[in-house]
Fold this sequence. Notes:
By secondary structure, chain A is α/β, with parallel strands linked by helices. Chain A has helices spanning 32-42, 56-72, 86-95, 104-108, 111-120, 157-167, 188-197, 211-219, 230-233, 239-248; strands spanning 5-13, 16-21, 25-30, 47-51, 77-80, 99-102, 125-134, 141-146, 151-156, 171-176, 202-205, 225-228. Chain A is built from 10 helices and 12 strands. Chain B has a single domain, classed as Class I glutamine amidotransferase (GATase) domain (Rossmann fold, 3-Layer(aba) Sandwich), CATH 3.40.50. Classes of the chains: A alpha/beta, B alpha/beta.
Amino acid sequence: MLTRRIIPCLDVKGGRVVKGKSFIRLQDAGDPVGLADFYYKEGADELVFLDITATPEGRDTMVDVVERISERVFMPLTVGGGLRNIGDMRRMLKAGADKVSINTAALRKPAIISEGAEKFGNQCIVVAIDAKRVGDGEVTRWEVYVSSGQEATGIDAVDWAKQAVELGAGEILLTSMDADGHKAGYDIELTRTISEAVTVPVIASGGAGTLRDLYQVLTEGKADAVLAASIFHYGTYSIAKTKQFLSDRGIPVRT
Amino acid sequence: MIAVVDYGAGNLRSVTNALAKLGYGMKITSRPDDILSAQAVILPGVGAAGDTMKSLEELGMVEPIRQFIAAGRPFLGICIGLQMLFTGTEEGGWHDCLGVLPGRVRRLPGGLKIPHMGWNQVKQKTAHPVFDGIPDEANFYFVHSYYAEPEDSSLVAGETEYGISFCSVVARGSLVATQFHPEKSGEYGLKMYDNFIRFALRAG
């Protein structure tokens, strides 16, 4: 049986791992290569690296970081942040990334999804969606934000997720901007709505505070994988403890 | 010499990193001559099988690979590299593949998330040196939307469940192929590479 994936996320700025609180306050939590190796040995199922510098110099640093990580960590690696075109994607994949995550560039120019999928295969293309609840109407809606959550697009997150998959996205990395950084649980309704709307796996992100939050998004939220940063980086829970908790409650995990 | 086939796609770096970690030298090559002089050939792959076949044809690699396998020399196919061994694939309309093994490559059934992405168990169906030191039902990392359906069930050395039970490891003598990515499957994945190469070097 396919196991559910537990994915630590490492936000990298200038070659160092940081974690944002609602994308604004940053704290330094270590060396990316060391952390990647630590999570590999701890039994994480996959790693996501987001380059939040997203400048040309930052990207060179990131290529170097990815190269060093892929030499010692034999698990799937996804890299995102500031990837603008096919060339940027190719550099990361050549450096040893297995998947590239695109966000702002995909929204500005959706053809990048189909071009990337055609060149590298659907399984390489992760479309990251930052979504925020809008309005107080009877029907819940979520709006897509880009540029690290700073720019509202007016686009509906469910529509965008479906379109991204039609264009060739192999996976959706879904972050609730309302929940992110607050450690009060994932946005279950958002995750379930998107997961039911698309045929590809959905990684839930934003809001993990306790192991129950992970359990809830994998069951009620129908997420295929969970991503978390601070609960792992600051040692609140180990990967082993997380998997034990989920396994005890009937969720298939790799041990 | 261990030849890793470079046909312009595929995640070569992960494979070469795994071999390097194990202390093996290798030659990354797109030259037909290197295939025939290799002790073992590894055909990695991601992407679409049809495109892979086209690239191999353009490089003049199809016949050397067929000859190498026909001679019973050690060959390891990974992911698309497994699918390529069969008669043909339904991916993107019918495409002929290498035709080394009878069978077709089909799309995973609907109703589940596709691609099949993540860690899943491999049930060992036959004893083979590539499984040395690897427990039955160990988890390996998969990412694929198509699977191979061999006509000869005795080729199936490993099986995995995802909606259906499909062939996740093919083994026939020195010919081995995996639908999953051993280079992305942690310590058991590395062990599988090590097993294959030890076996290949003994055979060679």
